[in-house]
Design brief:
heterodimer, A: 320 residues, alpha/beta, six-stranded mixed beta sheet, four-stranded antiparallel beta sheet, B: 270 residues, mainly alpha, 12 helices, globular
Chain lengths: 320, 270
Amino acid sequence: MTRATEPAIATEGLRREFTVGRRRARRTVVAVSGVDLRIEPGEAVGFLGPNGAGKSTTIKMLTGILVPTAGSLRVCGLDPTRQRRELARRLGVVFGQRSQLWWDLPLRDSFELLGSVHRVPADRHRARLDRCVDVLQLAPFLDVPVRQLSLGQRMRAEVTAALLHGPQLLVLDEPTVGLDLVSKERLRAFLEEVNVVDGVTILLTTHDLADVERLCRRVVVIDHGRVVTDDSIDALRARSGGAREVVVELAAPADPLAGLPGVHDVRVEADGLRQRLAFAPGDTTAAALISAVAARVELRDVTVVEPSIEDLVRTLYAGR
Amino acid sequence: MADRSRRRGVYLRLLASRVRSQLAYPTSFALDLLGQAIGSAVELVIILAVFAQVDSLGGFTREEVLLIYALAGISFGLADLVVGQLDDLPRWIRTGELDVLLARPLGVFPQLVTSDLQLRRLGRVAVAAVVLGVVLAQGGVAATPRNAVLVVGTPLVGAAIIGAIWVATCSVSFWVVEGREVANAFTYGSQLTTSYPITVFEPWLRRAACYAVPAAFVAYFPALALLDRPDPLGLPHALRYASPLVAVVAAAVAALIWRTAVRHYQGAGS
């Protein structure tokens, strides 16, 4: 049972250089430089960074598509360069930009071909496909050629295609790009289930940070080919100094609730019926604050607002 | 063993899906087939036109040149059918679709080969096969068991040699994205150099066709054996039977170059 204890992804000093330009203008560009990453089985990790930060290059090395220039790399206990095909059986990949389906075949046929490509036993293939068809609502377009699918339909099909062989690790590169809100939410819910219920490790690259907030408990931020942050979402929130807010709806208008312990800013809305109390994590807790407020005024409703991960990441990029 | 045959099953299914999609448009398929046949027939007309003016070309009669043309034509058509898809390699690389192939538990090369099966390329094979039949019927080739083996085996060995040349040159695309022109110089150039007796070429091209890019082994040398005539250039007698060996070496070299090239893959940058 070594496999169970082995990390899903382990890299040390991972580096990739590209040679660009011709003849005299030839130069070496370092896309990924010294990435150390360790992801345990069952984790869901958001892999973020601005364009050109080295996300895609890293993912391509993890999946055995690109050969690293230097560094060590193991994915699902395998060496992606030398054991690419073996790894491909344990790995599901969704590239938002390009399709793994056959554009001129009905979706059903593409799934069937992929089943035989991965040598999935017929009964398991059937079971996995049925589940995806059910949850992702693929039934209406199973017999439509892939080229005629809408983007939302295609992305759901791509995720299905990546899961048919029962991978240990699912790598998603921009899986919700171009989807409408409903499709996005449906896809996120399914991915969460795949991660939590089936225990599939997820590595997610996206520009839509709502994906990350929904799915991931840990975030790795990469910039200029280096890991600049690797932490849990909660720790990130705390560290970035982003304020949390308790929003209280009062039964009757009241003066600004001044003097509450740990609160550094009070904003009054709706003529004093709603008040936003900003506090820094660490100074107090939402629970303590709410009971302090309840002791002074009558509460109708309470919500706790977390700083958005988008703001957090923006401060991370800016602080480099 | 079971593993191997199952994998073969995958490729057959991939191919079957390609054939299905072509035959979905029978008219367009028929026209394609016809186009290829006409293209091939034009080369035949050129040979016939030349022989309307002269009695021999590089020391070979019309029937002898046609024999070489036919053997080379079948070889070229078969090679085109199997590895012609590599022509699209620059597109696979530029669009990054090659990433998708690399993310599957199959070899990149067999996936590219089975990514398409252009049955219309059989049009060229058909024309060349008819020419071969006509030449053989005229009795220039003795009906011996050895010659029977040569007639059947030469196009297969020749296709392997041409295919190896193509694979080796198409590998350039991994370094130079627009490597298609370089590759085409060899792929379509090899069609020229294989279809004629090498005696018609300048000495430098002759030497290249014998030793560097082994085009002369596709049809010229086996044809000498079939016609049972000495080499006008006085090259060693054994060369006429060396084609299978040349094919094995060419395939090994091509495989080595291909592997190096795939490892060099730089991706599409997104």
